[in-house]
Every structure is written in structure tokens, then in C-alpha cells.
Amino acid sequence: MNVYYWHVLCCIAISTASMLKSATDVSIYEPVRAYIHKIQQEHIKITEERKQRLDKVIAFIQAKLDNNEPAHLMFVCTHNSRRSHLSQIWAQTLAAYYGLDGVRAYSAGTEVTAFNERAVRALQRAGFAIRKLSEQTNPIYTVQYAHNALPIHVFSKLVSDTTNPSKGFCAIMNCSQAEQACPVVPGAVMRVSLPYDDPKEFDGMPQEEKQYDECCRQIARELIYVFSQVRSPKERK
User: Fold this and answer.
1) Backbone dihedral angles phi then psi of residue 84, each to the nearest 5 degrees
2) Burial of 81 (0-12, 13-18, 19+ CB in 10 A)
3) What is the pLDDT of residues 4-47, one digit of tens each?
4) By residue range, what is the domain housing residue 199?
5) Which residue, 12, 51, 87, 188, has fewest beta-carbon neighbours within 10 Å?
6) Cα radius of gyration (the chain)
7) Cα–Cα distance measured from residue 2 to residue 203, given in angstroms and rounded to the nearest whole number
8) Alpha helices by DSSP H, 82-175
9) What's the CATH code of the domain at 198?
10) 39 burial class (0-12, 13-18, 19+ CB within 10 angstroms)?
11) Could you tell me which of 70, 102, 105 has the C-alpha nearest to residue 87?
């Protein structure tokens, strides 16, 4: 591992520890807040079959928070380049939006590629501030969703990467290929199949931007459904 990556990984560790501050103190960027507000009523578009899968994630998070334990969510797809990153970023953002302390979102793949720039642009159109820290083959990006929260550091990585949890997490599989290539996710205490259509199929086509935006929106919509139903321990008293 070169010095650059070692420095960034240290920053990620510090950032993760700093996330322990109260999520209720986070000031979400207004464009991101407006995006969330706009699609909060779209839960009617979620099928009952999808809700059954999402309910498993809700139950996992709720049980962890009720026991005063961190709820680690790892989103997994083949290349850790599009859907898993979109899911990780929205999960961490929505945990803060709904004031839920203790939720930590991660992403991984069965192969290492790079955070795809088309997915980056879709998130930027949703209001996120994103900065590329290098021009390496697998660059590290910082993603900011709030004025007073440390950024999320994202790059393509394997499930076993040291920045990911090694046990006690819920593995959320975002593509069928990852499910087949990774029938067992070491350390996962729960595994949920939640595949999304790959916007990669439209790369270079006239519909490219529309499809990436729709994938981003669907992921946000379903994770809004999840986090809006989780109650903090204080609320349940």
C-alpha cells in the first residue's frame, strides 16, 4: 500500500470515529434535503415484494440500535462502482437526515474497479458535493451531504478491505452477479438480496443520464422507506 492510500485510510478511520456525534446535529445541504423531500411520498412505487426485503433491513437496524450497538450495513455489488456506492452514500445520508445515531454504511465488490464517474455525476445532480482526491486508476472521492459532517470517503474495494467491518454487519446484495460470486459474505450476520438494474447498460447511449438518475432515485426512495421507519432508542422510550 502506498503512502497516499495509507494517509487516506487513516483519515477514513478518523472520520468513522467522528460519526459517533449525534446525527440530530447534522445540517443537511439544502439541495439534498429538497431532493429527499421531493421523493418522500414515492413509497407507493415500492412493490410489496421489495418492501418485504427492505423490512429485513429495518429489523436489523432497529434491533442493533435498541441494544445500543452500531448498525453496520455493507452494500455489495460486483465491481463496487455504481449501485453499491449509491446505496452506501444514501444510507449514511438518510441516517443523518432521520437523526439515527449508530448507523454506519459501507460498500464493497467481488472485484475492484473504480467509483464510476457517471454515478458521481448522478449524485452531484442530487445535491451532493463530491471531490476527487487523485487521478489514480481507482481514485478516492470525498462525498459531502451536510455542512457540519465529515465527508464519506469512497473508492472501489473488496469485502475484505480493512476499511470495511469484519463481523456483525448486514450484507445487502445489490446485484445478482455478486450474490452468485459471493454466496457467503464472511462476517455477515444477515444477508438481504436487494438488486437494482445496472445503469451501466446505458453507458454511451442517449438515455444514459436519465437511467443513472432513475437508479439513484430508486435507491434513495427505498432507503427513505427504510430509515423513515426506524426509531431511535429515545423515541421508543
Assistant:
1) -70, -35
2) buried
3) 444 455 444 444 444 434 555 789 999 999 999 999 989 899 99
4) 3-232
5) 51
6) 17
7) 32
8) 83-97, 117-125
9) 3.40.50.2300
10) middle
11) 105
